[in-house]
Here is the input.
Amino acid sequence: MDIVVLAGGLCPERHVSLVSGEKICLALRSMGHRAVLVDMFLGLEGYDRPLDKIFDEDSGLCGEAVIRTEAPDLEAVRRSRGDQSPSLFGPGVLQVCAMADVVFLGLHGESGEDGRVQAAFDLLGIRYTGSGYLGSGMAMDKAVTKTVMEHCGILTAPWRELTYCAEDIPRLTEELPVPCAVKTVNGGSSLGVALPDTREELRKALEEVLAYGNRVIVEKKLHGREITVGVLDDAYLPAVEIIPQGGTFFDYAAKYQDGGSREVCPAPITEEQWREMGETSLKLHRALGLRAYSRTDFILDGEGRAWCVEINTLPGMTPASLLPKEAAAVGMSYPELCQKILELSLN
Here is the structure.
């Protein structure tokens, strides 16, 4: 098949997405597909060959993407695009996607995980992997997801949604409970998340998270083990326990830097705990109308209760990512996982 692997985009998870996309592209090529990697935002600006020959490229247009310790400077990325168009689709992107048999979405965050790309592709008749626009949009919005969780009877931390500006921070610093978790509603890869324990830390948290957006959820801070469970083909996979090194939470650096965390799969939990989290993952996956695959995160507290944190419709597919580890635990190689996602999406 002729496949565009769409990655990058213009969001804080840009680097993560490019690494995911590169690995997906190489895996699909190893399975015999004519796959090419395309940056959604920068597009094909420097590509000087005929567009109808792009799937013949030996390299698949793959480079050597890396994930740095800090999130990318998005204004620098925006300035680097020659045409300076306001469109989030770079030059040639929609044309080459329309030429492909299917687009494999290696996108993360607002650039691709919030349903807007899926909606555009639906209108243009472009086939793509993963969930549709509505389920993607609901799952990306943490406030909507929490509302669905409560409707389904899924255990989740008490929370409230608020919209604020810099002038509100002194008041909110006094009003909000601590310790707590402050999260931008549409963040990912632990960007736009803070876990303050004191009022001074809360003030700093509100200032820092505001850089990612002025709409947040504030929820009770949970203590326990970090567990995640993937869904593939309407069945749940083995759980993974994430153990951040140095006692920190599973933040951006811990997720993607060597030595930042240790992942144990299958997680050392009871069969009953795994089944409970797996069934909860499936329940939320179905309630949101998701398809093909997803990954749900939990906190397992000291009393053995599994608190549902969030769901991811386009889980990371980097070498350090969790879903590939879960697939490997049931004997599925990385290229086989990519092929399975492709088949499930097209079916």
Notes: Residues 250-257 have pLDDT under 50 and may be disordered. The chain has three domains: 2-128, 139-155+223-346, 159-220. DSSP finds twelve helices and 13 strands in the chain.
